[in-house]
Design brief:
Helices cover about 45% and strands about 15% of the residues. The protein has about 250 residues and is of the alpha/beta class. It has a single domain, classed as NAD(P)-binding Rossmann-like Domain (Rossmann fold). It has a 7-stranded parallel beta sheet with strand order 3-2-1-4-5-6-7, with helices on both faces. Helix 1 crosses helix 7, helix 3 runs parallel beside helix 4 and helix 4 packs parallel to helix 5. The termini are far apart.
């Protein structure tokens, strides 16, 4: 019952689920957030609780409903009576070509990727200060230079990068705040053609996609890592950002 508690947003599928499994294996208790992926979230909860009973709780919430995030934060803390870390992983991602994007897309992409991490962090400050906790934000290597046809998404991730560094400054020394900027880890849910995939792979010095497990291991390092490490965004991209970003 003394194990630290971590809230993971967007935890039901893909990278969020891998982060959750890895942290659970390391002994953390988890509050797993989901919105539309109820079946996957429940299956993940059952899987992990079968390994360690009463170690995982679920929270359903639309993160773009910003006025509801204070109540979500309260529910998250009440799951186990404490909170030691926050992983802002949830993210909307889809193309928004210039000239065809909409205010609704702006609100969704900015809300899930930037505004929700801000307001959720704000609401969780008392619990995180009490535990001298840590925050890990999932940024993106495209936050700085942008990704073609994904300008709104790139702007939102750039805001999250600014938030990461700003929070690290404002919340030190009690709460550490760091980020991870993944490169190509899992192919996006919208299909890419084989030439598009090859273009991406040719831009990566390591010559392969990253693995979700590698993201999870980096999250765990940042949660428990050196207490002097804050305000940093680690590019986990196989060296891609050191070469320069392609348009794919």
């Amino acid at each position: 019952m003394s194990a630290p508690v971590i809230l993971v947003t967007g935890a039901a599928k893909r990278i969020g689920a891998e982060i959750s499994r890895h942290l659970h294996q390391l002994g953390y208790r988890l509050v797993l957030h989901y919105y539309k992926s109820e079946t996957a979230a429940q299956a993940l909860q059952q899987e992990l609780n079968a390994r360690r009973p009463n170690s995982v709780q679920l929270i359903c919430q639309d993160l773009t409903q910003l006025e509801q995030l204070a109540a979500m934060a309260e529910r998250a803390v009440n799951c186990f009576g404490q909170l030691n870390g926050l992983i802002n992983n949830a993210s909307s991602f889809y193309p928004t070509p210039l000239g065809k994007s909409s205010p609704a897309q702006w609100q969704d992409l900015m809300g899930s990727n930037a505004a929700a991490p801000y307001f959720l962090t704000q609401a969780l400050l008392p619990a995180l200060r009490a535990s001298q906790g840590a925050i890990v934000n999932m940024v993106d290597i495209h936050a700085e230079k942008g990704l073609q046809d994904h300008l709104l998404y790139s702007m939102a991730k750039n805001a999250l990068a600014t938030l990461t560094r700003g929070l690290a400054n404002e919340l030190a020394p009690n709460i550490r705040v760091n980020g991870i900027a993944p490169g190509a880890i899992i192919w996006p849910e919208h299909e890419l053609s084989e030439p598009q995939k090859q273009q991406v792979l040719s831009s990566i010095p390591m010559g392969r996609l990253g693995q979700a497990q590698e993201i999870a291991e980096t999250v765990a390092f940042l949660l428990a890592g050196p207490t002097y490490l804050t305000g940093q965004i680690i590019a986990l991209d196989g060296g891609r950002s050191s070469r320069g970003l392609s348009e794919a």
